[in-house]
Amino acid sequence: MWFYTVWPFIGLGGAIVMLAILLTTDTFRSNPKVSRWWDPAWLVWLAVPLYWLHQFEEYSLPVLGLDYSIQEMICQKIGFPPYPECPIPLAFYPVVNIALMWFGAPLAAYLFRRNVLIGLSFWGLLFANGLVHTAGGIMEGAYNTGLWTAAVLFVPLSVWVIYASAIRGPYSGKVVGVAYAAGAITHAFLFGGYGLFKAGLIGNAGLLVYAAVIRFAPIILAAIASRFFQPELLRPVPEH
User: Fold this and answer.
1) Alpha-carbon distance 66 to 218, whole Å?
2) Mapped to the 3 state alphabet, what secondary structure does the chain carry?
3) Sign of dihedral through CA atoms 4, 7, 9, 11?
4) What contacts 24+ positions apart, CB below 8 Å, involve 108-111?
5) Can you give the residue ranges of every domain in the chain?
6) In this predicted model, what pLDDT tens digit does every residue of 29-63 receive, in sequence order?
7) Other CB atoms closer than 10 Å to residue 145's CB: what's the count?
8) Each residue of 86-127: pLDDT tens digit?
9) Burial class (CB in 10 A: 0-12, 13-18, 19+), 7
């Protein structure tokens, strides 16, 4: 199906447009007088196009003629044969990525204005993903699809968001830490879906439903965790 190869390029186009808006306008800033890099309200939106760039690196390389396929890598890691024998439906990859980062991440960023913990949760997903890619590249001594965006963008910027939000920022370190944990747990859930599929507990349709539902996992986990914090700790603080 043509969409299997086209969707990362659509995401790339969206990332370019959104980065241009983020970097050249005040659309997502809470206070134009404060540097955007110190503005958590702006930083939560930055996670969205960064992940679209990551998706492009992960899924476009075979189309560009490079011999790197994340689908083949996933099948190999799980213990399945390569495609076309690999039983993981190819539709799973665009469904889970689009559901999570084209819908879930923008929604979480929007909700930052009401709940800081929810807004920052997707940065935890980026941080966990970045660490997994980077650690894998170091241990194997080789490139893996998505490594460059993970190592160069995800890891350092995730650390910066912690610094700007909690260490030198206005928010509780516990709130930011739990937000990151919600994203990291979601990253583990992604691998859990493969495990359920391999164990035969869900089939092709079940895996696709799992992929669609998991888009809200960081938000749901963060919302549950929010119940354990005082409301004033979760409200966004105007930048001065």
Assistant:
1) 33
2) CCHHHHHHHHHHHHHHHHHHHHHHCCCCCCCCCCCHHHCHHHHHHHHHHHHHHHHHHHHHCCCCCCCCCHHHHHHHHHCCCCCCCCCCCCCHHHHHHHHHHHHHHHHHHHHCCCCHHHHHHHHHHHHHHHHHHHHHHHHHCCCCCCHHHHHHHHHHHHHHHHHHHHHCCCCCHHHHHHHHHHHHHHHHHHHHHHHHHHCCCCCHHHHHHHHHHHHHHHHHHHHHHHCCCCHHHHCCCCCC
3) negative
4) 108/44, 108/218, 108/219, 108/222, 109/28, 109/44, 109/45, 109/47, 109/48, 111/219
5) 3-234
6) 998 999 999 999 999 999 999 999 999 999 988 76
7) 23
8) 999 999 999 999 999 999 999 999 999 999 999 999 999 999
9) buried
**Tokens 């495990």 belong to which residue?**
195
Residue 193, both tokens: 């879906």
